[in-house]
Structures are given as C-alpha cells and as structure tokens.
Amino acid sequence: MSVELKGLNKTFGEVATIKNLDLAIPTGELVALLGPSGCGKTTLLRIIAGLEAPDSGAVLFDGESAASRSVRERRVGFVFQHYALFRHLSVFENIAFGLRVQRKRLGLSEAEICRKVRSLIELVQMEHLAWHYPAQLSGGQRQRVALARSLAVEPRLLLLDEPFGALDNHVRRELRRWLRRLHDDLHVTSVFVTHDTEEALEVADRVVIMNEGRIEQIGTPEEIYDHPKNLFVYSFLGHTNSIASPATPSEAAAEGSGEVAFVRPHDLIPVRDGSDPSSIAAQVRHVQFVGPVVHIELTTLNTAEPIEAHVSRDDFATLCLQPGETVWLRARQVRVFAPDALPSRRSEFQSGSARPRT
Amino acid sequence: MNATPTISRPKREPLAAGSESPVVRRTLIGLAVAAVAAFLVLPLSAILIEAFSQGIAVYFASLTEPHTWAAIRATVLVCSFAVPANCVFGVVAAWCIAKFDFPGKSVLVAFIDLPLSVSPVIAGLLFVLLFGARGVFGPFLTEHHIKIIFAIPGMVMATVFVTFPFVARELIPLMEAQGSDDELAGLSLGASGWQTFWRVTLPNVKWGLLYGIVLCTARALGEFGAVSVVSGLIRGETNTIPLHVQSLYDDSRFAAAFAVASLLTVFAVITLVLKTVLERKTAAALEGALTGRGRREGERA
Description:
heterodimer, A: 5-stranded antiparallel sheet, B: globular
C-alpha cells in the first residue's frame, strides 16, 4: 500500500511538532524517518497509524483519505518502542491476539489460527519460546514477538517506532539486518523511526531526514550521505569540523566571502610536509585509540579552533604523532553550504551533532 | 504477631556510613513493636478473651441467634451491592483519569478522595437530608412508597459513598504507569474497544483491582458511622454486624457483643493476608510497567 501525506500540521499545546509536511511513500518501500529527539518523527508515525489526528492536512492510503478510518480499520501494524506486549499472554497468544479478536470477521477456525501463529513463530525464530511470557524474554526476543504479532493480521503497512532503541548495540545490529531481510521477503510497505544514523543508512531504501517538524531531505542512503542538501543534514549524518574562512583550504577559499567550510574528520589527512598551500597547520592535543581508528584532537595554529581528524591505525603508526607536535592537515573533501542553507544557530547544530547519537 | 520485641543484629552487612548506631536502631524498633503491641495486638486479643469469657457454648449461641443471623445477612446484602457498584465506578473513573486528558480532571481526582475526608456520620446525614421523610426527595418517595432511609437501599448508598475511593485509588497509579500503548496495540491489531478492555486492560490491572476490592469489602463490612445514621437500627432488619455489636453492647450482653465482634476480627485477619499477597502482586505489576517503558515517556516526537 502506498502512503501519501499532504500538508500535515500538528500542534501540541503551543508547540508545533509537524509543520506543513508532505511525503509520499511508494508501495513496498522501507523508509526511515531520521532526526533528533523532538523533531516530530514519532508524531508523524502516530498520525499515519491513526493514533493521533492531524490538525490539518490529509493522510492518503492508496490515494484514498484515511481520515475517517479508525486505528482498527486502517490495517496498519504498529510496533512500539517498548514492544507493548500483553504481559499476561504467552508468546503464542500474543501473536494470536489479532487473529482471535477478528476471528468472526475473518472466518478463521482454531486450527487455522494455530497454523498461522506457528508459521509466524518460525519466521521470527522463536519456536523454543512459544509458551514463554514476555517477562521471560530478552529485549531482542520481545521485539521479534512484537513484530510477529503485528504481522499476524497481514497489515498493509508496517510502522515501527524506534524498533531497536531499547536494545544493546550488538543485538541491535543483528536485529536490523534481520529486519532488512524480512522486508526483502515480505515487501510490506514499512516506515520506521530512528535517531540512529547508521541504522537508517543501513536498513532503509529511502531516508527521510526531519528537523523541527519539517523534512530536510529525502533520498536513498547514498544520496543523502554523498549530497547533503544543507548543513543540518550534513552535520546530523556524522562528525563535522568547521573551518572558518581565511585559512580555508582548497576551493572554499576560492568561493570566499566569509563562508564556512566543513570537513569530516575521516576526510582530513595529517601530513608532516607543509608544502601544500591549501593545508592548515595544527597542533596535536590528544590522541585516542578507538578500535581500528585513531581520533586525533588538534587546534589550528592561526585561529586556535578545535579540529578532529580520524586516521587508521596504520597511517597513525607511520606518522608517529605525539601531543604538542605541529602537523599540516589536508582535506580530501570539503563542503561549503550557501549562506541561506546555513542555519543562523550554527553552533547549536554542531554541538548537537558533534557526536553520533546511538 | 509477637508481642516480645525481637531485634536481630545484622550479621553480614556492615553499617553504612552515616546510618544510625545499633542502640538508636534497637530503641526505634523496640518502640515500634511496643506501639503495635499496645494498640493492636492487645485490643484484638481482648476481643477474643471477652468473646470466650462465658465459655464456647455461649460464644456459638450468640453467633447463631436470629438477630445475629439477620445482621450477617444485612451486611452481606449491603456489601453485595456496594462492592460491585464501586468496582464498576472505580474502574470507569480510573480509566478516565489514567488514559485521557480532559479539563476538570484534577477536580474529579479530588472528588474521588472526598469520602476519605468527610466524616462517615456526615455522609449518612447527607443521605437522610436527601431521601429522608423531610428531605429533598422525601415527598416524592413517600408518594411512590419507596423506602430508602431506614432500609437497605439507603445503607447501600451510604456504604457506596464511604467506600468509593478504594478501587479507583488503587487503579489510577497502576493504569497511569502502564500508559496506553498496550491498548493502542490491541486496537491496531483489530480489537474493538470492548475487546481491548476485557482482553488487555483488565488483565493488566487484575491484581490492583483485586487489592482495591479487598480494601473496599473490608471497609464496607466494618462501616459503622454512615450506616448507623441511615439504617434506623431496626433489629433483625437493618442492623449490620457492626451495628449489632453496638446493640448487644448497649444491652450489656458483653460476651455476645464480643463474639459477634470476633467475626469482624476474623474478616480483618483474612483481609490482612489477602492484602499482603495482593500488594506484592500489584507492586510487581507496577514495577513491570515502569521498567518496560517510561524512560522515553516524555518524547512524543
């Protein structure tokens, strides 16, 4: 089922959480709504599900308005962040819930319900835990049950609210790959909300980046990462260094006019040779080994701005840098955003995205 | 319950820095145990001693006499109306308060607690003023030969009023902690509102509800003030167990009075046991609700 949102607005009290938002999701796509906390992504998801009514605007399912349809008539599967499993029911009965309450309408026999629930339990690999209760399951297992439960009623659209948010890192990676494979098999139109960039880029067919109730950019993970439309998208997708004008390296200097250039830490190459005129001199402050990567914190010599570079362990070993030493930084790739794309409260965005949120 | 103060010294756990010295701790525990003994255990044992003071035969004779039976019947009758009524009111009120936001919600919460702050005698008088012969609805009731005051209906009303908060107050915090995700999940799976209530909401709060019912029943059984005003103390008709105890006592039939009172004591002990068991179950349910969610509760965006 395709979903189309037209001119949506939603205000909670004084705060506008969704501002005149348009979005089209084609059938069978897996879409990530990505943004910082409070950007309106969960509200948007709840509006699509019918759990929240928009103040104005339309939600269209396959071109038809869904406004008059209640939650139960929309045939939308909703997976809650904290699973919302029925704690008094076993895994089997949780998954069977949707079929049992609609038994008459769907004309199902007990045997059919059993067969269907069993196949779903197999799908989510929970055969050995079918008669366990939610309290006896781990977070990842609960999330799989929640997913199976919502799939039981064959939803035309699957909505997932921060589906992996409450899980630890290892389980999260495993589960999101599993979700990706599941989607490849089932092809049900799915929308999931996340504030984890890596998750969105890894799992989704298309990523919708939201900020303050608006959509900043829509595109495939590659498009979004390689061609960020504005500074917000750029800085939300990873670490950034800002380099103020006079010493701006490469083409940024040519475009001039006091613009700020941005460069990712892994695009900075520290070199001992300062002959390249576009490179900037900086002093090493701290060196941190983070697994296979070395994080080097520096300050530029002319403007005393903090700057961070990430290099591989091998490169670091050849450089053999010590805190206090001076090096030259060359940039592989620099981004300059047109002044109108620069949000006025730049510093805030940077502090908000200097570290990836996981 | 043991009247001798038993103080066990913590064997393995050392005293945390800044905590009380053993002397202070022993004194405090000793005082608490002494207070419980003096004000609860002693009077309760006195009831039993008095009840059997004239022998077991008198004890059972006073329990089986017709007026006592009538009092038991009246009490059971009143409770069998008042408790289910409050159960329904309590669930509905808690549901409204916990799951919806509406103007005047805090006023409603305050009103639910009103019976706890009003003296039961005043509550009884209130019903007399409304439904008594010279009350607001008095003439209408007399005309249609409906008897409320000095009859069971009035006693049920007074009991409902006095025991109103018990179920609601147990359920509100539980339902609030559980939020409405479970219900929304039910609805999104195609359940109707009614199905969601029976299959999701009620099982989620069953222990809290039972706890509320136990408290409500205990209060309804023992209610004296409000019921004594509206019952008219007609022996064999509108005397409930607590009122009957009072009547027997007024007649100087002390052994009989204490024998009937021992019935209420037995109920109290049963209530205490049930309450302890249910309290644990409710606490577990509440904890389950709080650990399952809540951390990101505020984030709706």
